[in-house]
């Protein structure tokens, strides 16, 4: 039976209420960096290099395992450990687990789950591991990748048993299997059953509490120092604080550009810095889980409406595979690849460019408002997500007002010539780029990047339009180095006794660019949570 693909599948987003202003998460402006985050000093020395000061607490709390972060990995680890008889304390900087990226993400990729079995669409461990390991081209810890993926089905099935609803969605981007499980609800409705089960098994949560430092004694983990004056003492610590999307200094250090955070800005690299301070080491890969809804501009404050349209409809052109240039006006990629894989290729391409420009003529601009981009390109069957891309098209009722807003904010230009656009955005190579591009459109052959002919539409009819986009992401991927058992390692690759890192704080299982099968970031996080719990239980 053919599978239809709706807007929700393309978005990869679950509960529509998860990003409301009251949650203070995606769509908010970056928050001021916390004093405990990884700011760089005038000498370029990070907090981790200088050493996080030890401030002995006025109170201690004893447990078997301290978990830092109540997101995807943290909740899964706490659930399995508590059920396994371990005394667990979860330290969370937010007021509840509903503040995490996990509470608002679309849903994880997984293998060998109940939903896949029910729909006769089982993805085997070998199948998904081979796909993702091949995609990584040896840049990740292959044993760790397999270990995390092997526990994704367990994590999904556990959540289903707790009444957390999910749907197995179609193969949105044509990777060859149906791995993604979309959540039916977000926020408290999603995380509440996990929190309740953890608590019913003796687990404890310290909300509104920021972890500050891993307490080490004789080279081994002894606990976690917090800003609440409570030292949580434990012989095992699992760090999973959600990456560094809320830390501009760390973004600049590792990504060489600022990235607008669509996810929680509470994920500010604190967990990563605590592991480095305890003797851990950076891994090599740094990427982002890019914005599959289009792009953002330098003026963006809130990128999405309640029904997941872009707040300015002219942000959607990044998805459509037209003519894109770098900051000097030169093409830098086959734009069709961005349309095919906006999460992976699109996120990395914009990150690498720092900012990019979409250039079009009146024919293109008007066609998008009318029949839509998919029809304008001739409804190419090879563009798998093309039928739903028009969810982000510019509409006649909003086009003029949204264009004027973009022009006033300085990220759009409408002009009678390409030369005017080149001058407005200081793109010295743009005129030559457009001339060459139009020639490729006439011949149907992209001589530079081999873009598919159906994406080649000439830029020749005045007026002309240009839109400037900057990087944005749901989360960062990349952090400290771990071994295949999720144990943090030092600079000599020796495991630090008792110190584990799961989720996107560890950089050993996330590839560059982001994996092309959607849901990979949170899928690996839930798998890592279940896996690290098993490791601790069997230690």
TrEMBL record:
Highest taxon above the source species: Bacteria
One Pfam short name: FAD_binding_2
UniProt-listed PROSITE patterns: PROKAR_LIPOPROTEIN (PS51257), TAT (PS51318)
All copies of domain FAD-dependent oxidoreductase 2 FAD-binding, residue ranges: 64-510
Keyword set, alphabetical order: FAD, Flavoprotein, Oxidoreductase, Signal
Span of the signal peptide: 1-23
Cofactor: FAD
InterPro entries, per the entry: FAD-dep_OxRdtase_2_FAD-bd (IPR003953), FAD-oxidoreductase_2 (IPR050315), FAD/NAD-bd_sf (IPR036188), Succ_DH/fumarate_Rdtase_cat_sf (IPR027477), TAT_signal (IPR006311)
PANTHER family assigned: FAD-DEPENDENT OXIDOREDUCTASE 2 FAD BINDING DOMAIN-CONTAINING PROTEIN, FUMARATE REDUCTASE
Name this polypeptide is given: FAD-binding protein
Organism of origin: Adlercreutzia wanghongyangiae
């Amino acid at each position: 039976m053919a599978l239809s693909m709706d807007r929700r599948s393309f978005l990869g987003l679950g509960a529509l209420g998860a990003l409301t202003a009251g949650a203070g998460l995606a769509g908010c402006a970056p928050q001021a960096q916390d004093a405990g985050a990884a700011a760089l000093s005038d000498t370029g020395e990070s907090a981790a290099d200088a050493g996080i000061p030890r401030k002995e607490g006025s109170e201690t709390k004893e447990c078997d395992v301290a978990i830092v972060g109540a997101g995807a990995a943290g909740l899964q680890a706490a659930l399995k450990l508590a059920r396994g008889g371990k005394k667990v304390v979860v330290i969370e900087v937010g007021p509840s687990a509903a503040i995490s990226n996990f509470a608002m993400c679309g849903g994880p990729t997984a293998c060998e789950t109940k939903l896949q079995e029910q729909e006769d669409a089982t993805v085997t461990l070998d199948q998904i591991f081979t796909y993702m390991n091949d995609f990584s081209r040896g840049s990740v810890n292959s044993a760790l990748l397999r270990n995390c993926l092997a526990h994704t089905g367990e994590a999904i099935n556990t959540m289903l048993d707790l009444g957390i609803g999910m749907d197995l969605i179609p193969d949105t981007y044509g990777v060859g299997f149906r791995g993604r499980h979309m959540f039916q609800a977000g926020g408290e409705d999603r995380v509440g059953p996990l929190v309740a089960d953890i608590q019913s098994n003796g687990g404890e949560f310290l909300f509104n509490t920021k972890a500050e430092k891993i307490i080490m004694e004789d080279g081994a983990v002894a606990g976690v120092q917090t800003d609440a004056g409570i030292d949580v003492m434990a012989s095992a610590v699992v760090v999973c604080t959600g990456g560094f999307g809320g830390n501009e200094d760390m973004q600049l250090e590792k990504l060489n550009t600022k990235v607008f955070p669509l996810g929680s800005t509470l994920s500010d690299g604190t967990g990563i810095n605590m592991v480095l301070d305890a003797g851990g080491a950076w891994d090599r890969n740094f990427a982002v889980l890019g914005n599959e809804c289009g792009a953002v501009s330098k003026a963006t404050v809130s990128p999405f409406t309640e029904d997941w349209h872009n707040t300015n409809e002219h942000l959607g052109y990044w998805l459509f595979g037209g003519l894109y240039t770098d900051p000097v006006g030169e093409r830098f990629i086959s734009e069709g690849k961005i349309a095919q894989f906006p999460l992976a290729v699109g996120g990395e391409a914009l990150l690498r460019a720092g900012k990019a420009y979409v250039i079009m003529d009146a024919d293109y601009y008007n066609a998008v408002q009318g029949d839509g981009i998919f029809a304008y390109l001739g409804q190419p069957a090879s563009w798998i997500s093309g039928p739903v891309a028009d969810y982000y098209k510019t509409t006649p009722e909003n086009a003029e007002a949204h264009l004027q807003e973009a022009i006033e904010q300085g990220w759009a230009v409408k002009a009678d010539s390409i030369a005017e656009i080149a001058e407005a955005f200081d793109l010295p190579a743009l005129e030559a780029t457009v001339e060459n591009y139009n020639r490729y459109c006439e011949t149907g052959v992209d001589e530079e990047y081999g873009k598919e002919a159906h994406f080649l539409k000439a830029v020749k009819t005045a007026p002309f339009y240009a839109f400037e986009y900057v990087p944005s992401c749901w989360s960062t991927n990349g952090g400290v180095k771990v071994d295949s058992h999720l144990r943090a390692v030092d600079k000599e690759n020796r495991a630090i006794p008792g110190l584990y890192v799961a989720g996107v704080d560890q950089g050993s299982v996330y590839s560059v660019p982001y994996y092309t099968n959607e849901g990979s970031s949170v899928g690996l996080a839930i798998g890592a949570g279940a896996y690290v719990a098993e490791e601790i239980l069997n230690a």
